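hey so u asked for the seq, here:
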Amino acid sequence: MNCLVFILDTLRWDHLGHNKWQPIRTPNIDRFAQRATIFDRAVISSFPTIPHRTDVITGNVNFPRYGWKNLGEEEITLPQVLHEAGYYTGFIADTKHTFNSNFQRVFDDAHLTWNPPADAPKPKDMPFLFPPEHVRQDGAEYRAHMAAHNHYKHESDWFVAQSAFTAANWLQDNARRDKWFLWVDTFEIHERWHTPKYYVDLYDPGYDGLPYDFPNYNYTDCYTKEQIKHLRACYAAEVTLTDRWIGHILDQVEVMNLWDDTMVVLTSDHGMYLGEHRRMGKHTCKEGDPWPLYEEVSHIPFLVWIPKKGLKKRVKALVQPCDLMPTILDALRVKGPRLHGRSWLPLLAGAKPRVWDVVYSSKCNASGSRASNTATWLTATTDRWTYVAAEPGHKPELYDLKTDPHQKRNLAAKNPEVVKKLQAGVVEFLCSQKAEPEYVARYENAALK
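ran it, structure tokens below
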């Protein structure tokens, strides 16, 4: 059996049509969902972009020990294990951070499709059409994205489309091999939320205000209701654009009759606040103001197709990104190293009700992690609870997901025993993952009242 993995950037779980939480058009991913198993409780571990992908490619949780860094030579990775088992491995990405972090070195074949033309304008020369304080870090990254996108004329110019064309061609060139593995990684959906206008018109037709398509990574007080609506529409437009080009690859799988011997996985690294909790962005950019990882950010899509009869169509048990490596190795019957992640095959077969009782999520907040202006509170998620862990200067938060899925009522004061247990679990987990003593001490010394 072969394997195709899609990792999309910044795709919220509730913005897929088949989940019916938002009126978003994702016909191609919804079509795949009809075939695949849907994991309803997939939760991030290491946050954001590169830490998440490091969890996926190594089968371990890295945030307790380190944050955003290059893929180390000492890491045992999924493509390397598959290569040693005779698989030809490919990596196609327009997420340039992956190449900057040396992910390409562990694949047999790697293509970066994020490649603006040589005559692209300089970011400093790009116009600014709205107040810079309404955009992340006063617009420095916004201008860089504008410059990189300046050559777009047709939809096929978008980087996600280029990745889709490259992936479809890769399948034509390599699907004849006995064993292959392909990882397709697109940065699309990540801001700048820039699409052809006809996609935005699906969600906010007739808007004639300032062209907001980039979040401020701050609180929403500076925006009007109409501007927040437009930002949400631009995000939804990105989701639908990306769905179209994921569909191009899935159509290639269909026309080449690959479903019967190909495992296919689709997931995302995290979500995004779109006005919920008065926030716009996935984390703060303001030093000294860590943000919680509520469901809008921490709950991610996970859809898995394995060509095997009798597998469950929906799984409600908790799973996390580091589980993907052991699951793929298990499905492909390839022996791998001992990992923190756990295979989902017992869940899919109905042999186990769960593999995790709790999943821990955070950006690395240890010393030297460069997290001061992107810090997050550490979150523990169970079947029932979201617990935002106490630290010195920060009181615990506890939300009952069964009665309060939008996490608006903090029940920590009413459930001291639950708080005490979950806080102790945070400390135990960090120690088990060899976090530095100063990092662990934050949670050992936190006041729970």
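The chain is about 30% helix and 15% strand. The longest helix spans residues 225-255.
lmk if thats what u needed
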